[in-house]
Structures
1.
Amino acid sequence: MKSIGPTRSSHSLPDTRSGAALIVLAGAQFVVTLSTSIVNVALPAVRDGVGLSDSGMSWVVNAYGLAFGALLLSGGRAGDLLGRRRVLLAGLALFAAASITAGLASTAWLLIGARTAQGIGAAAVAPAALALVMQLFPPGPGRGRALGVWGAVSGAGGAAGVLAGGLLTESLGWPWIFHVSGFGAACVCAAATLLPATAPPAPAARRLDLAGTLAVTLGLVALVHGLTAARRSGWTDPLVLTSLTAATLLLLLFVVVERHHPASLIPPQLLTTGTVAPANLDMTLLGAVWVGLFFFLPLYQQQVLGAGPLVAGLSQLPLATANMLGSSLAPRLAGRLGAHVTLAAGLLTQASGLLWLSRVSAQGSFLADLLGPTLVIGLGLGVAFVQLTSAAVTGVDPADAGLAGGLVNTTRQIGGAIGLAVLGTLAASTTAGAAPHLSRTEALTEGYRAAFLVSAGLIAAGAVLTPLLARRAARSATPAQEPAAPHSTTPHSPATTRSTR
């Protein structure tokens, strides 16, 4: 994909310093994605250790996801306005402190509060780190390789979380799943102080759309809460309906505010820039399947195949390896086949693996039922994630890079919440329908098979969108004849001369 912005970043570094900066920024992303999944296999131990109820146990996961997903846009914009390095360091410091607090928690309220603070810190870290990667690596092969590393780390973090959760819980105890995240974030924060300082924004640029920020944050919190509660209480539960209604009204209010605010949180021009809009739509579908995959795979292994937490975690290694391989291959494939052909191939590869996975059996084994399809899924996931991340931020005004990074992380996170709610409800209803006629493990397997089959359909639908991405990219690559809009990213736009923060 071609960028229509400047061909060289004013803050790009020599290769050696850029490589060191990439290691630090990738480490920040790894810590964030690790903490998303590290609690999954440890939840029973956490429940017993802190005295959580069943609903309280779900909030150990949901508190982090709610804060993370709802505040990503605000975190991205804060980086643009206040300085990305500054916001990255603050987010890492908060994340480290909250992680250590979670590991020391002896009461449910303290643990859930610490998980919420973790999510707030992550919402600052993820978009700021991605914006700094885009800032330090100008368009070209170097950026492609950097995004390949970024994709490999993102996928590996999710799988490593499941592995680390099982290993630490069985060896050192559940508090260490949080302590390890905290120590890791503290180390990354110390290393991030070596990143080059960037110019602060001009005083006139220090404006934040507070009304839009409040509306979208509360709207996304209500949406994620409603979808999460629907899995447990059903779609007709009054609390679920109230949450979803409030989410609808708040998000509509956000749209109205954005249309009239002079410094809107999401400039309308951003969604018409390059391939930002279709790439984020595809990322929503990818997020739905990604989160669902890492949720259902350990359940199938533990509840049907009888594996323990450690074995279930170790079984994620082939998927993580394939994911890293796909991420490293993505830039080379894009150079030979073209970005959009590579994206379509990655999505279709992932869809075929999920279709294969939908054939799992109640009498199966890891080697017979999981190894082959997870290798195929991981390969396609790695390729697709790198290409979609690139498409979602390419051609964006450098001053809005943090916001674009926050947006693509938001769509993946919210897509994951929506997908898990829908797929979880589908799996549960399929299992309930099969229960009178089949054994418990066979009924559970039917539910997981249905979830994997629908996941394959969602990813295939994402592949159908790739021609739209290609058309938008072709239009963006054609120099505009009319004067540039305020948020335009043409080479002669005044916005491209502003200091990147």
2.
Amino acid sequence: MPIETRVHGAGGTVSQAAADLGAEVVAVPVRKGPVAPAAEVAEGLPFTLDELLALHRAKGEPGEITATQVRVGDRVRELLLYGVGDAAPADLRRAGAALARRGRGRAALAAGVPAGDLAAFTEGALLASYEFKIGAPPAKKALGTLAVLTEAGPEAGAAAIERGTVRARATALARDLANTPAGEKDPSWLAARAEQVAAEAGLDIRVRGEKELAEGGFGGLLAVGGGSARPPRLIELSYQPGEAAGRHIVLVGKGITFDSGGLSLKPNEGMKTMKTDMAGGGAVIAVMGALRALGVRARVTGLVAAAENMPSGSSMRPGDVITHFGGTTSEMLNADAEGRLVLADALAYADAELAPDAVVDVATLTGAAKVALGLRHAALFATDDDLAAALTRAGTAAGEPVWRLPLTADYRAAIDSDLADVANIGRGGYGAGATTAALFLREFAGDRPWAHLDIAGPGRATSDDAEITRGATGYGVRLLLDWLTAA
């Protein structure tokens, strides 16, 4: 579902913008302290803004809002004093989100914005306006228009607003893909959505069905998808910049459109969020769709390994041995550790056939990563320190933080198999489930720089907070776009 809110720059004063738009709400920023602004819109109040802030014990913290009424022109409007902290990007994202949520049910809001990253403010406002609903619409619609006034004027802010809008809409697309119920969303549906994105963004696309997967030796995808009446797909999206391409980057996304656990069946509670088990694949599709609009100079290929993991008479069985793309074999000891099996095929294919300069995979892979790092940080594993550092910087800048965990060499023995080259789960006694899963993937990534983002924690949210909305978060989209824009 598209974000309905629109953000655009405005000139003049907040009062003029409000009058021109017919805005019901006006807003002025308050820095940490709090530091009351010199706001012309408040000149008619019978008290000072400092007095109002003191009355409400405001601190100017990001996202904090103090409200009163003010006459602007011939109407009484709501005046919001909204905290922006130090006006760092994270502060402005939170501030923009708070304004957008406060503006629900309103047609327009005119806001002054402090000097800082206007793209971050725009992202926060738009992502907080996101909603996904099947059935009756919410009682209060999202804010219609957010007009922002900056010291530099509307033209100077247009590029930043556009950049923030592109990034927010890409994140919203990833949320849409993950939030769509699994009854509608199977691998062929996901491939069709990728085809739409490719057509709109000028990408090349190739979708491999069952026959091509079998002929190509993609044994992991076929094994995981074998229990479902809805067969697997390998989606390959290709972006070539208009100018001479720099590095070639491959992004790989886990696209399990529903994970029942297969014959290693999950309990009912564990299945309720499994429509979002393709959040990594959705992030890759969304990133690919935004590359041209952001002027990314690198050549980028996106691979989404899509399958539905279901129990049936044709399901893979614990103890089966799978031959992956390229010939490496794995012993399947737990059918609920299926994501690494489909990623293995895609990683091996990327290494052997695409010859990238670096590979990054994104997956809701292990509960262990969620236990270790909670709901805000993704687990980062990498074979290359420079790649790990670049992704960490990008995550911090984008508000999608990562924490690097070790690829402990001593734990490699945990995935030894008596029958195959590797086993798909770790033996007892080692623990470190996120690490042993990453070690399994490393077996297929080759010797080139590779990083694995386990987004099992931040890929889903149980409540709204700042720019995050309940349900799928679209985590990874802004992180990867920041990294690729700098590549």
